[in-house]
């Protein structure tokens, strides 16, 4: 992908599709979902259009693919936004009609399991947007985080450069969606500590590729949405991990296998998202959270030392499963300026 194809952006008053390409969780947890829909309307001025599987748990891959086709093919729909992620979107990919999507490019927003569709679109030459789900970011308890809202607004409505900045505080401890009291106040935050740079002695500018690390590992295993390694030469890699909290050794193994494939060495720069370090299954305390993040960073550096020792890395970027969350273009341009400690994306 050498010449990114940025789809036309919507304007306030336009219709946007809200889909569930992975899981119909809006049907189980309507409170954060409907809060997110209200904010789309009230704060961003767009009209959300739901589809047959948006609130349907257990929808088949064919049904979910049909919703994707319908949303992209409808000329009245100006953007497509995922309700939430999941773990089954890989089964939708073989049912997608590339011709429909290529002929009707639109901005698509999502992350986590939506890495599947984002990289599928990228292979068609269409820039997508990693971030901005309806239930998690738009449906955040209390209020949208201002940094998230600003980044999402810029990516949704504008074209051109947007400079990312590090958050002063961040949070990754969730409260249960089924408890109405969850939505009475904003989530607790803690000092973020800024970004950390490795090999930050140059400027790298290139087309972006990446997403959720666990999903990318599945795509590699299934042989989908990943081309020959040299197709990514000079690209900017971005990665993040999910609430499943993969062990540092698993992160290393995935990156090692990317290295063995000849993929890791293609990227002169890597943006590594701030690792989510808490889940309902593993409610880590402050010291455990810090240790988890440190061990993940060490795993990334160990893999790079073996396969791509010259790669520049920025750790703890607020992308992916983070609060706040910065939207990252997939297949769009990113400039990583090590000496100036700046990251600029093109929306």
Specify the biggest β-sheet: 8 strands, mixed
- The CATH superfamily of the largest domain is identified as LD-carboxypeptidase A C-terminal domain-like
Low-confidence stretches: none
> End-to-end span in angstroms?
16 Å
CATH topology tier name of the largest domain: Glucose Oxidase, domain 1
The beta-strand count equals 16
Q: What top-tier CATH class of the largest domain fits best? A: Alpha Beta
| Total individual domains | 2
Query: What gross morphology would you assign?
Result: globular
Which secondary-structure class do the elements indicate? alpha/beta
What proportion strand? 15-25%
What sequence of helices (H) and strands (E) makes up the elements?
EHEHEHEHEHHEEEEEHEHEHEEEE
Q: Report the radius of gyration as a whole number of Å.
A: 19 Å
Portion of residues within helices: 25-40%
Strand neighbour order, sheet with most strands: 6-16-15-10-11-12-13-9
| Number of H/I helices | 9
CATH architecture of the largest domain: 3-Layer(bba) Sandwich
Structure description:
With 347 residues, the protein is of the alpha/beta class. 30% of the residues lie in helices and 20% in strands. It has 9 helices and 16 strands. The strands form 3 sheets. The protein has an 8-stranded mixed β-sheet. A 6-stranded mixed β-sheet has the order 2-1-3-4-5-14, with helices on both faces. Strands 7-8 form a two-stranded antiparallel sheet. The mean pLDDT is 97.
Summarize it.
Belongs to the peptidase S66 family. By secondary structure, the chain is α/β, with parallel strands linked by helices.
